[in-house]
Amino acid sequence: QVQLVESGGALVRPGGSLRLSCVASGFSFSNTKMSWLRRAPGKRLEWVASILGDGNLPHYTDSVKGRFTIAADNANNTIFLQMNNLKPEDTAVYYCARAAYVMSGERGQGTQVTVSS
Questions:
Q1: pLDDT in tens, 66-116
Q2: Residue 109 and residue 111: Cα distance in Å, rounded?
Q3: Helix or strand or coil: residue 86?
Q4: 83 to each of 17, 22, 52, 58, 103, how far by Cα in Å?
Q5: Nearest partner of 50 among 65, 42, 84, judged by Cα
């Protein structure tokens, strides 16, 4: 059974930083492309970043390039999203997912990130 458990969301001021984590189980992590997604209030689900489970080929949506960093810890089946210089428009529920299963709706329960002064 696939399980994806996100954590690390919080209320933070503009310009602040957060590190999100997602622990995965139930599949071969090192061979899997993993993604971070987010859904802002009243908006559609948005892809944020992806990486292979072995840590290779990180890539990002344009709005977070230079501010967010995705990483993978293959030994612990965990991906991370380091978010720096956060902006109010980054406010959203953040989810991790297997990239190939995003359209099927498979993802974790999400973690809330709120950027506000």
A1: 999 999 999 999 999 999 999 999 999 999 999 989 888 899 999 999 999
A2: 7
A3: coil
A4: 5, 14, 19, 14, 25
A5: 65
Quick check: 49 and 36 in contact, CB under 8 A? yes
Closest Cα partner for 89 from 111, 113, 70? Answer: 113
How far, in Å, are 1, 29, 42, 55 from residue 104 at the CA level? 15, 18, 21, 24
> CA-CA distance, 44 to 111, in Å (whole number)?
16
In a 3-state reduction of DSSP, which class is residue 116? coil
Q: Which two tokens stand for residue 20?
A: 């999100």
Q: What is the pLDDT of residues 15-70, one digit of tens each?
A: 999 999 999 999 988 889 999 999 999 999 999 999 998 889 999 999 999 999 99
Are 4 and 47 in contact by the 8 Å Cβ rule? The answer is no
Identify residue 92 by its one-letter amino acid code. A
